[in-house]
Specification:
The chain has 18 helices and nine strands. With about 425 residues, it is of the alpha/beta class. The chain starts with 5 loop residues before the first helix and ends with a helix.
Length: about 425
């Protein structure tokens, strides 16, 4: 999965979905009706991951000989939603962004799957609870979860040993202490090695990924911003700014500018330039390919309250049926197979190196055999893990708060309480526009 690509397609996704009129509910077939014909699947995967999709699609067509699947790889959310808005596009879309669910469900760009779930008596409790949360909005389930990402920390064991640190930090205070011990400065005071790079615009350090460290809430029950009223946001931002000030904001900006691209072999953690990094299970595949000799460990996110330790941020890929689907019954058969068949899900998880989404597959021996991967399986299943709630405005509320965090970490916000109150108002403004 490539979360870094999310922002690039967000505007196109929101525009296309917003212009899509809500369709009438499809008339579905009676239970037991034989399904046949062709179905078109668009997904964003390429190369090794696209080959994994092809392998499992072959399994599907072998068990469903009367259904033909036409696969179009390398299709990002912008292309899919533009095609839907134009009245064409795939029968089934596979998206990398859970943030589009609110917009797709409310606009009708993807159809409500509850009708199929009821008819086929699908037991949704077999899905992980967090994935159930991010695949529905306002009573509509227009998506099903297709693998997931669980976020924790990666740490450099050799740098830890050199600094005399026995194991990964479990609390924010320990993270601060370890980050300072692991940091090495050049003779001129500039940064050579950083223990933990606290800037919110570095790699995977988004507010969404940091929020579970303090249990921060994004939205209230009525869909308004909870940022100003939730004191944990102040806890998170105070901790972050104190660490930024330790390094010096200008020093961090200069250091960050010298680092390689997140998804290249020059990734700062892989090069030993950053000792502790927030990342997801997909980093394991990159390390195996690009940094075979790196001595690393993985762990859950450090937290403000030790009672919350063990969790992290959870997100994932999602599948939905387009309102323009030419063969919605075949589309549903494909989605049902890819999201409820434990053998298919486990095979996909092993091939793509992402977290499976059913409770049964979390204990699959092939997946738990790797102790590092098992850490992320445990984070995914931990009750303290959380995700970002779906909204009719899509990711706009997160993007708005990200702008505030950028101002805060740079020192442009003198009064944090007033700043959070202002961020509240701006978030509520974009939420009203999104609705």
């Amino acid at each position: 999965m490539r979360r870094a690509a999310l922002a690039l397609g967000a505007a196109a996704v929101m525009l296309a979905a917003a212009c899509t009129p809500a369709p009438k509910e499809n008339k579905i077939a009676d239970p037991g009706t034989e399904v046949s014909g062709s179905v078109e699947l668009w997904h964003f995967f390429t190369d090794r991951e696209a080959a994994a999709i092809d392998t499992v699609i072959k399994d599907f067509t072998a068990s469903h000989p009367k259904i033909t699947v036409n696969v179009k790889s390398g299709q990002d959310d912008g292309k899919v939603t533009q095609a839907i808005g134009a009245g064409s596009g795939p029968d089934v879309g596979l998206s990398y962004s859970t943030d589009i669910v609110g917009k797709f469900c409310s606009s009708g760009a993807w159809v409500d799957l509850n009708q199929y779930l009821r008819r086929d008596k699908i037991d949704l409790t077999k899905l992980n609870a967090t994935t159930r949360q991010y695949t529905e909005y306002a009573g509509k389930r227009c998506a099903m979860p297709f693998l997931a990402d669980a976020y924790g920390i990666f740490y450099n064991k050799d740098l830890f040993a050199k600094a005399g640190i026995a194991g990964p930090p479990k609390t924010l205070d320990e993270l601060t202490e370890d980050a300072k011990k692991l940091t090495v400065r050049n003779a001129d005071g500039s940064l050579k090695t950083v223990g933990f790079l606290p800037l919110s615009d570095f790699y995977e350090n988004s507010a969404a990924h940091l929020a579970p460290m303090v249990g921060a809430k994004w939205l209230t029950a009525d869909g308004k911003s909870a940022i100003g009223a939730d004191p944990t946001w102040k806890t998170l931002l105070t901790w972050q700014k104190q660490l930024v000030d330790f390094y010096g904001y200008a020093n961090l900006v200069k250091f960050k500018a010298s680092l390689g691209d997140e998804f290249s072999a020059d990734n700062a953690f892989q090069k030993g330039q950053v000792a502790i990094n927030i990342d997801a299970e997909f980093r394991l595949a990159f390390l195996a390919d690009q940094a075979k000799n790196l001595n690393f460990g993985v762990a859950p996110l450090p937290v403000s309250d030790p009672a919350r330790y063990g969790g992290g941020y959870v997100t994932g890929n999602i599948l939905g049926i387009s309102k323009n689907a030419k063969n919605p019954e075949a589309a549903w058969e494909l989605i049902k197979y890819l999201t409820t068949d434990d053998a298919a899900i486990a095979k996909l998880a092993e091939l793509i190196k992402n977290v499976p989404t059913t409770t049964a597959t979390l204990t699959d021996p092939k997946l738990t055999a790797d102790p590092n991967f098992k850490v992320f399986l445990d984070i995914f299943a931990n009750p303290n893990s959380s995700t970002t709630p779906p909204s009719s405005s899509g990711p706009a509320y997160q993007e708005t708060f990200a702008q505030f965090m950028t101002e805060w970490q740079s020192g442009k916000v003198a009064d944090l309480d007033a700043g959070l109150a202002g961020a509240d108002q701006k978030v509520n403004g974009v939420m009203q526009l999104g609705g």
